[in-house]
Amino acid sequence: MLGGEEEKDPDASKKEEEHQEALRQQEDERKAKHSRMEAEREKVRQTIRDKYGLKKKEEKEAEEKAAMEQACEGSLTRPKKAIPRGCGDDDEEDEESILDTVLKFLPGPLQDMFKK
Questions:
Q1: Which end of the chain is more exposed for a tag (fewer CB within 10 A), N or C?
Q2: Which string of DSSP letters, residue by residue, matches 19-51?
């Protein structure tokens, strides 16, 4: 004991193996428990999807991807995005229509002043 030597327990390796086995068994039980819980959750999710007519994210993504592929079948370029109203080259016409809209809400004498 003085030289830093420790007494070696002859059963230490056996105890260590039993301890490791117990840890593995606990981990397996924990994984099994969590997989059962997740399966129950998925059942509940599916009943809700069925009840309200919802789809899984994977199904939605697959349908959207298929729709995009169908739209692009004969095209060599990607599909054009829809341009929202007012974002195109017709800026002058929009400004005039906005001014006309504002003038409609003004009293008569003010309308006459702005029209001149």
A1: C
A2: HHHHHHHHHHHHHHHHHHHHHHHHHHHHHHHHH
Decide if 85 contacts 96 (C-beta within 8 A): no
3-state secondary structure 9-25: CCCHHHHHHHHHHHHHH
DSSP state of 82: P
Radius of gyration of the chain (CA): 37
CA angle 41, 47, 51 (to 5 degrees): 145
Banded pLDDT at 51 (limits 50, 70, 90): very high
Q: What are phi and psi of 106, to 5 degrees?
A: -85, 150
Q: Which amino acid is at 71?
A: A
Q: Residue 39: pLDDT above 60? A: yes
- Burial (CB count within 10 angstroms: exposed 0-12, middle 13-18, buried 19+), residue 24: exposed
